[in-house]
Amino acid sequence: MKVMEPVNIGIIGLGTVGAGTVNLLERNANEISRRAGRHIKVKGAAVRDAARPRACSTSSLELGTDPFELTDDPTIDVIVELMGGETLAREIVIRALTNGKHVVTANKALIAVHGNEIFRVARENGLVVAFEAAVAGGVSIIKVLREGLAGNCIEQVIGIVNGTTNYILSGMSKSGRPFDEKLDEAKRLGYAEADPSFDIDGVDAAHKLTILSSIAFGIPLDFANVYVEGITGITSQDIAYAGDFGYRIKHLAIAKRIDSRIELRVHPCLIPVEHLLANVDGVMNAILVVGDAAGPTVHYGAGAGAEPTASSVVADIVDVVRTLTTDPENRVPHLAFQPHSLSPLRGGPMGDVETAYYLRLLALDQAGVLADVARILGQRGISIESIRQRGTSSSDTPVPIVIITHRTLESRIESSIPELESLPSIAQKVVKIRLESMASHPE
C-alpha cells in the first residue's frame, strides 16, 4: 500500500480556537489520520505576538508573525484562518486561494460579508473553503443543512446562535437581576468580550443567520438584508411579565420562506415556555430547522469554546484532505446549491412581517385608559389576545399594562405606537417585543 505524504497546514491565529485546534490535532492524531486517509501536520502558525504564552505546544511548528509567509509557502496545502476580523482576513484568504491553497475558517463575519467573492475565487482555482466552525461552534449545523437535509425544501431556520446573549437572558430569567449585572458577570467569566457590542447588539447572530439562510434557501450571502436588533432594551420586568403569560424571552435568528420572499431577522422574541428553544440556557446554542420532508429538527450543542469550535475546524480540515484528490466539479457546493442556481429571492421590509406582539405601556390608573388603547389598536385591525394591568395605585401614579396581540403586520403595530404614546395617560415609551408561536414545534 502506497504511503501518502502528510498534508501540511498553516494556522493563522493561535488564540482560544487556534490553540484548541493544535491540541486536538495532536491528541487525536491517529484517529484523525484514519478518517482523513493521510497524516495532518501543522507546519507553521502566524500570530501577532510570538513571545506570548500559548495554550498549546508550539515546539514542533514554525511560529512567526507574518501570515503571508504561510499563504506563500509552496509546501503548505491548507490555510486555517482563525484570526477573526474582516479586512486582513479577507486579504489572507484571497491570497491563499490564488496561491492554490484550500482554506478552513471559523470567521463568520468574513463569510457573511465577503463570502460571495471568496467562493468565486475558490471556484476559479478549483479549491475548497470550509467554514463549519463559523456558526454554532460544535453543532455542525452547516453540514446538516448542506448535506443531511439536501432532499428537503427548507421552510424555516430559527435559532439561538449567540451564547453571550443567551447567557445574559437566561440568567436574568432565573435570578431577576438586571441586564447590566448579567453582562458584567458574562465578562468576568469570559463569555463576553471586553467590548461586547457585536454580541449584545445582534451583529454576531446576524452574521451567522446570513450564512445559514444562504445554505438553507439557496440565496446569495446578503448580510445587509438582515434586520438586526439586540438585547440591550430587555428588562427583568419584561422577562417576568412574559413568564406570567407562559413565555420566555430569547434572542433569535429567524429565517423563513414566505411565499416569494425570505424573512431574515435577528431580535429578542417571546416563545412558549414548553418549546425546546425556550429551555436552552447559558452559553449553549440550538437551531430549529423545518424541512418539508424531515419536519422540525432541533440541533443543540456548545456554540463556542476551544474544544467544541476546534472540533468543527478539525472536521473541516479532514473534509478538505479527503477532497484533495477529487474532481473539483463534483464536490459539495460551498453554499449547498450549485453556484449558477442560486435564487434571486430577497427579503421584504420589516413592515411586511406578520407575527404576534408583546406591548408594555406605563399608564395612569384612570377610567377609560384601556378603552383608548383598545380603540387605537382596533382601528388598525390589531386584535388583543390578552391584556393585564400589573397592580393598582392612585390615579396619578402610572402602572404597567401588558398586552399580547394576535398575529398582525409589523407596519400596523409601528403605526399605532406613536398614537398610544401621545395619549395623556401614557407615561413613557411603549415597549414592543415580537412573539413567535413556534408552530409545528417539537415538544
UniProtKB/TrEMBL annotation:
Domain ACT: 358-438
Pathway entry: Amino-acid biosynthesis; L-methionine biosynthesis via de novo pathway; L-homoserine from L-aspartate: step 3/3; Amino-acid biosynthesis; L-threonine biosynthesis; L-threonine from L-aspartate: step 3/5
Annotated GO biological process: methionine biosynthetic process; threonine biosynthetic process
Keyword Lyase part of the UniProt annotation: no
SUPFAM superfamilies for the chain: ACT-like, Glyceraldehyde-3-phosphate dehydrogenase-like, C-terminal domain, NAD(P)-binding Rossmann-fold domains
InterPro entries: ACT-like_dom_sf, ACT_dom, Asp/hSer_DH_NAD-bd, HDH, HDH_cat, HDH_CS, NAD(P)-bd_dom_sf
Molecular function in Gene Ontology: homoserine dehydrogenase activity; NADP binding
Keyword tRNA processing: no
Keywords: Amino-acid biosynthesis, Methionine biosynthesis, NADP, Oxidoreductase, Threonine biosynthesis
Enzyme Commission code(s) on record: 1.1.1.3
Annotated family: Belongs to the homoserine dehydrogenase family.
Name of the protein: Homoserine dehydrogenase
